[in-house]
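ugh ok fine here u go
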Amino acid sequence: MIVSLLRRYVLALSPDGSAARTGEVLVGDQLVAIAGISVLGLPIGEVMEQLAAVEGVDVALTFFRGEREQLQDIVGARDGGPATVTITVQEPGKPDQALVVPYGANLRDELIARGINCAPR
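structure:
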């Protein structure tokens, strides 16, 4: 199975891979655990380090597919967490933008909704 990740979300699948053939993993699924250890909230660099550190041929990856609210309920993020967070977007040649988004929101979806280009480079 070959899976391409962007910010812990599946960006693409190898068309000939088992994930694409079986439908067990779909584009847009969120990686939530590696070898049973949660990666929720970790920066993508740390997630990639955890992937690289896993030993063995088979690696257990746990993905989540569903609405943001479902994942928040599962991890308890809606119990006492802040209602919103402020994200600062920095783009070359443009002034910084402060965005207030719901806590636990899919940042990519929030950026797209505001017309901010978040395509991989």
